[in-house]
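Bumping my old thread because nobody answered last time. Still need a sequence for this structure:
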C-alpha cells in the first residue's frame, strides 16, 4: 500500500477573522501538535502569537487586490502592506484567487514570494508542485484540492474525512476559513446573513451560537483532518518545495 499520509496539507485563510477565532483554531493545532500554513490578512495580537510558533506554523500572506481593498490601491501597495505584516513570508494565497501573469511575476521578483497557492483544482487527483520561470522569477505553484466554502455550493459536499473522494493520488491541500470552522455551517447564506447583520470583527460566540450547526460541516471535517495529521504531524506549504528541489 502506498503511504499517502504526507500528501494531506492543512492551510488556513484568516480573512480578517477576530482574534478569538484565530486563538480557538491555533490552540487546537498546538494541542494536537499539527503543522499548518496560515495565510494572514491583517496584524493583531493573535496573529503575533501564531507568528511566534514557527515550530508549528508557517505564516504566508493573503493579499487582497480586489476593488475596495484595505490593503492598498494597487498591486504594489497591497503586496508592500501585507509583507510589512509578515516580512519573511514566502508563500501566498490571494484573496478571491486574484491572479495574472504580471501580478505573479511582480510578487516573485519584487516582494520575495516564491510559492503561490492560488490555483484551486477541486477534488482533482494527481496534483503536484510545479515551477514557473517568468522574466527571471522562479515561482512554485501548489494547486489546492479542497475548500470549505466551495463545498457549500456542491450538490454532494464532502464533510467527512473518510469520504473516498478525499483519498485520491497526489497532493491534497485543504483550505479552511476560521469563520466557517467556528460556524460549522454547510450553507453559505448563513454566513452572508450574519455578516449583513454584524461586521465580522464584532462577532462573538453569543452572536453566532444560534447559527452554529451540530451536523457535519467544515468544523467536523477540520477536526477529523487534524486528528489524522496528528499521527505524522503534518507539513507546511514551504516544505513541499524544499523537498522537491533536491
Ligand atoms: Zn480570502
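Sorry it took so long. Here it is:
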Amino acid at each position: 500500500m502506498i503511504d499517502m499520509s504526507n500528501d494531506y496539507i492543512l492551510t488556513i485563510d484568516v480573512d480578517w477573522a477576530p482574534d478569538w477565532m484565530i486563538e480557538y483554531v491555533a490552540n487546537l493545532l498546538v494541542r494536537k501538535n499539527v503543522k499548518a500554513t496560515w495565510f494572514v490578512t491583517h496584524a493583531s495580537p493573535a496573529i503575533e502569537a501564531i507568528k511566534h510558533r514557527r515550530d508549528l506554523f508557517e505564516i504566508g500572506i493573503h493579499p487582497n487586490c480586489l476593488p475596495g481593498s484595505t490593503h492598498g490601491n494597487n498591486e504594489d501597495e497591497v503586496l508592500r502592506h501585507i509583507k510589512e505584516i509578515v516580512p519573511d513570508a514566502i508563500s501566498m494565497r490571494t484573496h478571491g484567487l486574484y491572479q495574472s501573469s504580471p501580478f505573479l511575476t511582480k510578487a516573485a521578483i519584487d516582494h520575495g514570494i516564491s510559492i503561490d497557492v492560488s490555483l484551486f483544482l477541486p477534488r482533482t487527483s494527481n496534483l503536484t508542485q510545479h515551477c514557473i520561470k517568468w522574466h527571471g522569477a522562479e515561482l512554485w505553484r501548489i494547486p489546492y484540492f479542497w475548500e470549505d466554502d466551495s463545498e457549500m455550493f456542491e450538490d454532494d459536499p464532502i464533510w467527512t474525512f473518510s469520504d473516498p473522494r478525499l483519498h485520491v493520488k497526489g497532493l491534497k491541500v485543504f483550505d479552511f476559513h476560521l469563520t466557517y470552522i467556528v460556524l460549522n455551517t454547510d450553507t453559505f447564506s448563513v454566513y452572508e446573513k450574519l455578516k449583513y447583520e454584524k461586521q465580522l470583527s464584532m462577532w462573538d460566540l453569543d452572536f453566532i451560537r444560534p447559527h452554529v450547526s451540530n451536523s457535519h460541516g467544515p468544523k467536523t471535517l477540520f477536526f477529523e483532518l487534524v486528528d489524522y495529521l496528528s499521527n505524522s504531524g503534518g507539513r507546511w506549504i514551504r516544505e513541499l518545495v524544499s523537498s522537491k528541489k533536491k
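The chain has one domain: 5-245. Let me know if any region looks off to you.
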